[in-house]
Each structure stands twice: as structure tokens, then as C-alpha cells.
Amino acid sequence: MTSIRDSYEAVIGLEVHAQMLTKSKAYSSDINEYGARPNTHVSSITLGHPGTLPKMNKKTIEFAIKLGLALNCKIASHQHFARKNYFYPDLPKGYQITQDTTPICTGGFVDVKLEDGVVKRIGITRIHMEEDAGKSIHDVDVYDTLVDLNRAGTPLLEIVTEPDMRSADEAYAYLTEIRQLVRYLDICDGNMEEGSLRCDANISVRKKGAEAFGTKVEVKNMNSIRNVHRAISHEIDRQIEVLETGGALSQETRSFDAASGTTSSMRTKEAANDYRYFPEPDLAPLFVSQEQIEAVKQEMPVLPKELFEKYTTELKLSDYDANILIITKAFALYFEEVIAQTKNYKGAANWMIGEVRSYLNQQGKDIEDFPLEPKSIAELVNLIDSGKISHSAASQGLFPEMIAFPEVHPEELANKLNLIQDSDEDSIKGFIQTVIEQNASEVLRYQSGEKQLVGFFMGQLMKASKGKADPKAANKLMREMLDNAK
Amino acid sequence: MYKTYADVKAAMEKGQSVKDILQSYLLAIEERKDLNAFTEVFLDTAIKKAEEVDQKIAEGKAGRLAGMVIAIKDNICYKNHKVSASSKILDGFESIYSATVVERLLAEDAVIIGRTNCDEFAMGSSSENSAFGAVRNALNEDYVPGGSSGGSATAVAANLCTVALGSDTGGSIRQPASFTGTIGFKPTYGRVSRYGLIAYASSFDQIGPFANSVDDVALVTEIMSGMDEFDSTLSSKEVGSLQPTPLKGKLKIAYIRETLDSDGIDPEIKQRIEQLINCLRADGHELIPVSFPYLDKMVPTYYVLTTAEASSNLSRFDGVHYGYRSKDAVGVEATYTQSRMEGFGSEVKRRIMTGTFVLSHGYYDAYYSKGQKVRRLIQDKTNEILAKSDVILLPTSPSTAFKLNSVKEPIQMYLQDIYTVQANLTGNPAISLPIGLHPNGMPFGLQLIGNHFEEKKLLVISAYLNDFC
Prior knowledge:
heterodimer; A: alpha+beta; Arc Repressor Mutant, subunit A; nine-stranded mixed β-sheet; 39% helix; B: alpha/beta; eleven-stranded mixed β-sheet; 11 strands; 40% helix; globular
């Protein structure tokens, strides 16, 4: 099977819907909020009552431009909205306001780094603005479907890729990248479980080397990035198997079932809707000026790609470290503040990736809820660098205490805990002298070649100094004095 | 009997209260029930508002429309009042908000007396397609009042209100005005907010008034006009005062030769208009005959585009959320089909199906796209004429009012709109002024089309012509 599978190539394109984090809905002043009591954010406009007209939320345009710029797209200067007509109980107007022939962004790309370090460029066909439908709830009432229209009119950005991906891994990497990006841009919370980020996949397979695309299947209902990966993997296998057993694929829409990890047919192309798109007459055509684009550019936040670049080249951190630091915007911005106050970038990164992250993981908290100011972490790093405190004392003693008393200055706390180490040469030399005198036979063994005994001497030294001797300075002095001991 | 707002004000000066005036209108409505002009009289709220206005007058705080009694077409929403677009599908539906125009008229202390009967969803030219039965012409009850705003037209003709609002998508204000001897005005598309007007064809619809004087048309239009955050298709151009001032200088009036030379036009109407043209010319105005090569394309273009928009606009009436729901329907699919089958009248269904067809995959380019292109040609040609003239003069309708149930062929009915759809295809303001009485006893009108947003100029010319005729 492996070799047969290897003779095929998958062709994948993704359609991502991102709910925008605007305060109000796309075409009304209703609050845009997840989780409110059903049918509470529903004005006459959301309800699609007779005579109502859409009222453009200008913020959505700004969000669309932001994402377009981040994905290297062209921003259309002149565009209009369109109606997509279909009947469904959670679509109160009987049509969805969207963009058809004039999407706001076209022709972009995003570079994603795969596991093996290879960078893959994925083309962005278009990004357009549209509104979400309400929610049909089939599993609460035994007999009836319930409709919640709070979500109706929520602004969406639909991001459509070129059929550039060749594996589930690439789709996974792309989606991870997009989610990180929309979060950095603060235009979507990226929560796939709650449906604020949704993904449909168009998948086909063809023999390697073939030019023509195979029959395309659209897969829906994948509510996590992992499930997108599972669904694509399954669908590729299924399509190859159908072809290999002499069957033919039909152009259809399939639904992913997370429990079984399989897809099943929802509808075929013949049964597909004719959406009868036409220009939305209730919204004036939209003009985006160069000044407007420039203004959005000015307000663009720092992007993960730029931070990664900076961390790996300027700060000389590893790719691995950089990737962890940029995982969320808040975490990266915290780190940015730390390194504004210490020059030991590697040390700061280690603290963030080590102690800070494991604390957050244990507590189930986000960096936003972390009790310490970035300044405190910088001071901690600086205390270690100056030799005033050992790394282990900082990690095990001082750090937990800082979290308990976040308002107290770290050095003050270290003093109180008696953790400040001795780096005064004379005083360390005194301790070493005592250790040498008390362990004459070990000194002889050391001098005759058992250099590993330095560890034993350091242990004795720490005991004698009650752990306060600066190990870095002590280690150097210890070797000198052992070599010279008579 | 108050024919105009000037009559109302004269009566008020003689001591009549707004409530007195309202009562006499209510009495008139009761006496002319046979016209079937009103679908519902808003008795309680009208009386309450009249009392409130009387109070304000006493305090010296009344608005500019104090004493004016206005009827609204039954496709304009008024908060906590029923609105049905004369359709069974909105059976029992009450609006939870008011149209912007209603808000503005109430803010100036007009009394809204009730909602008027019309063709279902404003689709028709005779006001016979109504779930509430046909409307009758105030001048002769055997005749239709025109449509779709027939109830509003006949109400103004019979003096059942001072002013009535209609909506005009392809002539639905101007043609009934012509049929009832009233003045009907369609402002520029984008001048008056459509928020709260139940949509028929969004890029054509416009609210406008019927009245018995140009002054009243001007006053009400002025108050309704201008920016509204709820309608993004409005122009930000300043409205200013629309009160007609005396005409200064001589006019350049274009008239479309083909509208008078076509076979379809009633010879009496043609003769009267030609006579008027000659009089105006003799009076020193420049009358410019122009050719309009797309006259026979107007109605087809109009029907392709309006039915397309209508098929989408009327999707929301699905029996699920509000209004009529078929009692026998089980399941969502059946709820849709049965509710819509039973709730819509046949003309509405015909237009929904036509519109669905022209937007369908495989037909879109041949119909909808082509329609849009022709619309543009008609717009360009109209602008070209108006660049060289003050107004375009043409008949409002090729005939006078016809008898009830006499026009049965849809296409024949559609051709009623031949002279009126132009202003909706192009968005220009247009007015119908009564200019004569046919030997058959029915009135007919003259139509003027003005430049975009030049309502003032159009009304100045209208006032002049109204006296001239």
C-alpha cells in the first residue's frame, strides 16, 4: 500500500472563515459576542424584518485590510458587496451579504515552515468580507430544531488559498500560521472549538507527475486543527483507495466525523445550490483609498514572522526557542519587555521558556494573568548574571517567592531569604582553604589525576559557605588552589 | 373638506383644532369606504397624536407639519402598527420599528392617519393585486386608481388626508397620480431614506408624496430628505429648502419624440401635450425635441432587473420567522413551499419566478448582466439629454385610468409603465402633474424628469407649469 500511496499526490486548498472581533455586527449595531443567551443580540436588522437595510460596520474593512497586508495581498480600491441567495431557517433574510466578483484582497501568499525546516509558500487567492448565519441547534429539543440568531450578522473574513498544499502536514502548518496571524492582528480569537475560526478543505488526488487535477471533494465540519489534519489524511487515503479499486470519485461535499475519523457524503454537486449571486443593492459600492491603506499599515502590530527573524538573527536564539517565544502575541510582547531591560537575551529566553512557561502551564494560566512584571524577570536574570545569586537558588528559592510577593523587589526578597551569594574572592578563598585542609587525602588523589573530584570539593565548599559562595568564581579559584596545594 | 395643507392652516387660523381636522378626515374616510383606499385607520394613535399636537400648538412648540394629516402606503413601517404590503404573507405582522420617513414626519408633528391599500409588494399598475381587494378610483369607482400606490392616490384625490406617501419603483406614484388627477413625486434615488420601506426592488424603490399642491409635495419631501445612518445608499448632498420660488428666465425643455409618436398613446393625451408644448414655445421657452432610441427596451430592462432584486428581497418571507405560516406544513421544506404558495398572490409569484430565472446559473449573463448594461445606456442617454436641458417632458401614462378587471394580460399591464420606468432605471427625480380631463371623464398627467438631486428646480418648474396649464 505504501508504494501505491507514494505514487499519488494530494492537492489541497483551504477555505478559512474567521469571525471578526468587532464590537458590533457586520451590518447592524447589535453586539457581536459569543455565548450570550440565545436571541438576545437581535435587532430588527439582524432579524431581517421587512424594510430593514444593512448598515456597514467600517471596522470590518480595516480588519480585512490588516489581514490582506499581513498576507501580502493586493487591496482592491473599488469593490461592491453581493447577495448569496439560499433558504435556511438560520438565515433570516434568505440571503447572505458577501463579496463575489470584487473581493477586498487578492493575490497574496504566506510562507510556512514545515517540520523538516523546509519553507513552503502557499498562495492566497482571495480574502473577502461577509456575514455569518445564525445557528441551528438540532440536539437540544427532541422534536424541533431551535434557531439562535445571535450569530447572524457576525462579520467574517473568508480566506481562500490556491490549491498549493500537498499533504495534511502542510495544511496543518498553514492553518497554524493563519490562526497565529489573526490572533496577532487582533482580528479573530482563532478559537476553532467555538467556531470563531472554521476551515473547509478541498481535496483531490492525482498520480504524481500528472498535470490535471483529480475530482475535488470538499470536506466540512472539522473543529480543530488536529481534526483538519485527520480529515485530510483520511480523505486522501479514501480517494486513493476508491481509485485503486477501480472506482470513480464524484464531486461532492463530505462531512468529517471526529469520533470515527472518517468522512461521509453530505451532498453531491448535482444537488448543489444555485446561489444566484448578484450585486447587493442596499450597500453603496466601497472605495478604499491609498491613504486608508497607509493608515492601517501604520497601525499594524508586529507580526510573528518579524519577531522570529529578530530572535534568530539579532538575538541569536535557536529556531526552537524563537518559535516558543512567538507562540502568542502576548507572550512575545512580554518577552520584548523583558529584553528591553536585560542584555542577556538567551538567559531571558530560558526563563520565559522554562520557569515562566511551566508555571503558566501548571496554573492553567495565560501570560496575561502572570503576576510578575517583565521588569522582575529582567532583574532576576540580571541578579544571576552579576553573580549575586545562583541559578538554582533563583529557580527554586527566589522565583516562587517572587510570585508570592510580586510587589517586592527581587533583590530585596533574595536578601530576606538569605540567597545572595558570596563572590568576594578573599572570603571564598578562606572557605576553600578550610575544605583543602579538612580533606588532605582527596587533595592528593586530585593532584594525582582524579580531576573529577573537583565536584566533591565544590560540594564541601557549598556546605561550608551554606550555599552562598558564587559557584562560578569558586570553581575557578578551587582549581587554582587545589593545583597549588601542598 | 381640506384639499391642501394651506386649507388646513386656514381652518386652524379660524380656530379649528388638529383634532377637529383629524375628525373631519376620519369622517370622510368613513364616507368613502367604498374606495377601499385604507387597509387600516390608526384611530387611537392618530387621535393621541392630534391631541399632542394641539397641546404643542398651545405651548407654541409645534413642528412644521402641525395639522397635516398623512396616510402611508401599507409598505412603510410604523412602530407597533401592522404593515402587510397588501399581502397575506404578512398576515398579523406588526412592525417593531418606524421607517425613517415616518419618524421625520412625526417629529414635525404630522398625524399619521392610517395605511393605504396597494398592489401586493408594490407589484402592479392598478391596485387590483391586493389581499384586501381592489382599490377604486375616487373620480369613478368603475375605474382603477392606478398602482401600485393606488390607495394613497385615491385617498388624496378624495381628500381623505392632506398628503399620502407612496413608493415608486417603476411609476407606482406617478401613474396613479396621473389616473386620479393628483400630483405625485418620486425624488431622486438616494434622496429619501428607504429604511422602513418594504423592499420590492432595492435599486429602484423610492418613497415620495401624493398631494393636491406642489407646495405640499415640496414641504413633505424636504422633511423626509437627507442622510440617514440606516440607509447607506443615500447621498450626502445638502437638501436645502425645496419650497418653489417663482420661475426666473426661460426654460430649456426636452421632450422625447418617440413617447408621443408611439402607437400606444391615447390621441387625446398626445394632443394635449403637443398643445402644451406649443404654448410653452410661444411663451418663449426653448422646447427641444430629442430622440430616445431605447424606449422599447425600457420595460424589458426594468422587469429583468426589478424581478431579480425582488426574488431576493422577498426570500425573507418564508413562513419561519414571522407573518403567515401554512397550517398544514410539516418540516422546514414544506413550511417554505406551502407558506409561500399560499401567502403570495399570483403576480408576486410570477415576479419571484422571473427574477429567480434571470439570476440563475447559465441565464445570468443573457438577462441580468445584459439588463445592467442596458440600464447604463439608458442612464447615459438620459444624462446626456439633461446636460442640455432643464427637464425632460413626457406623458406619465399612455392612457387614462382603465376599468377594473379590464387589463388581464400581465404584459399589457407592464406596458402601463412604459414612460415611468425611465426615471427609476436612471434614479432621476420625476413628477406627474395633472394637465387635463379626457372626454371619458378621467384625468391624465404630464411627467417631468429632472437632474439628479435637483428637486428644487424640478418643483419650481412644476409649480410654474401647474399654474400655466
